[in-house]
Amino acid sequence: MQLSGNQCVGGEWTAAGEKLFTALNPATCESLLPSFHEATDAEVDRALQLADQAVDALQTLPRETMASFLEEIAIGLETAREVLIARAHAETALPVQRLEAECARTVGHCRSFAQMVRASAWSQPRIDHGNPHRQPVAKPELRTLLVGVGPVVVFGASNFPLAISVAGTDTISAFAARCPVVVKAHPAHPGTCELVAQIIAQSAAKWHLPAGVFSLLQGADNSLGTALVVHPQTSAVAFTGSLRGGRALFDLAVSRPRPIPFYGEMGSANPVFVLPGAAKQQAEAIARGYVQSINMGVGQYCTNPGLLFVTSGADGDRFIAATTECVSQVLPATMLHSVIHSSYVTGLNRIAQTPGIKVVAQSPADGIVDSLQAACTLFTASVDVLDEHPELTEEVFGPESIVFCCQSVDQMIGIARKMDCHLTATIHGTEQDLLEHAELVRILQRKVGRLVFNGFPTGLEPCHALHHGGPYPAATHSYFTSVGQQAIYRFTRPICFQGVPDAALPDEIQERNPLGIDRLVDGKLIPGR
Q: For a Cys-Cys bond, which of 34, 328, 381, 385 suits 5, CB 3.0-4.6 Å?
């Protein structure tokens, strides 16, 4: 596989733009060849016009063809695995073992969505039979199912160059909903993006999909993202990144003449609450898991725990001592790119300069061997500091966390009630702790999308039951997940047919149920074959 540095527009590789940029190896800060062309406005327009032209053909495409297309992508990723991982490692400095797991996850969600396409149950067919004899008004025949919304724009994430990028869950779930996709490649790993785009384009060509089913556009500044969001043919947007960037794009999406849904997953500080019984029984074990979670992916996961609350006293002191010991043994590691590293250093300095905050542990400074390496840092403070500095609960993207000491669980509960919303929250507690402090559980259910007990939030299991999202500002819509099979519902909408002849209806809602799928008929779930 050779890199061209070009755009993929409807299956054709173009290089209309004169502006160029290059990827950098974050471990060496050396440029990586080739240079990549910035997408032009004309290429943006061409990609989205082709996508719009592909919508009708995709909506009527045989489900076996679409499923086979997704499986072909999985095969291509497996075949190119070594090349993909080598380039991703060079562009991100992520460990090879981590990238191997991420590649397997990407292959897995391609295949799981192919299974969903074949089953067709995701379309949620609902039928209410008519009754022309009903008095005083006849009842009409109504049949409803979910269909794809149209062209979807996907923003690749910096921290998952495979699983939340060109062939990530956003793209693959949109394909499963029969939506064409235009991906904005992440400028930190454009080569990895192009390699995956080649696989998708080849898979689409093999299964004779319409040209506009997929495009990849490269760009290193914000103008490309703006152009994609405001383009009149864009029907929905999926974004994973910072709150600042996500909010700017969200505002563009909802201020268009025809507003569109913007599904932003924007990270969080993921608070952890250690209740007294758990601290007494397993302070050291919780400390080890906590530090491991802080440092997973050099702290560059949206689920890393940036805040922890524990009650003061002997058990709380044991926990802090154990955590301090663990942090002091963590070696510095290279971050994804210079912008993330600079932001992390700025965040550390802001926290360290806050009155009442104390640095209690940090990775050994003599372990830093390159300019983009980050030291794991642990702060402590009395929870009272939050009254004057609520900004301490904001995410700092990197391997740091603050342990807040509370006088009582009631004080913890008060903090939980006042804190902003997050992707996750974690409670460590014995059965007795949970019975005595059920109020904390009830409060946190309103604050997060995933509540973890006696574990840690890093590491997601992509499946039907997973919800990776949360109330704003963790995400722009708390109903939807960006990981797992339920992610498909971001890119669907219901269409209701009234009085349509049976033969003219989509297969999913024809009377004879030719697909043999489960359906809701006259309010009752009727199993398929």
A: 34
Q: Angle of helix 222-230 relative to helix 41-59, nearest 10 degrees?
A: 40
Each residue's pLDDT tens digit, 4-28: 999 999 999 999 888 999 999 999 9
Q: pLDDT-derived band of residue 221, with 50, 70 and 90 as boundaries? A: confident
Residues 276, 409: contact at Cβ < 8 Å?
Answer: yes
pTM: 0.94
Q: Which of 91, 194, 265, 395 is catalytic?
A: 265
Beta-bridged to residue 262, according to DSSP, are 237
Q: What residues have CB less than 8 Å from 273, skipping those under 6 apart? A: 308, 309, 412, 416, 425, 426, 427, 428, 429, 440, 444
pLDDT of residue 369: 65
* In contact, 72 and 207? CB cutoff 8 Å: yes
Q: Active-site residue among 302, 326, 376, 421? A: 302
Reply yes or no on whether 463 is catalytic. no
Phi, psi of 262 (to 5 degrees): -125, 115
Q: What is the pLDDT of residues 410-442, one digit of tens each?
A: 999 999 999 999 999 999 999 999 999 999 999
Verify whether residue 376 is a known catalytic residue. no
Q: How far is CA 83 from CA 197, 243, 251, in A?
A: 13, 32, 38
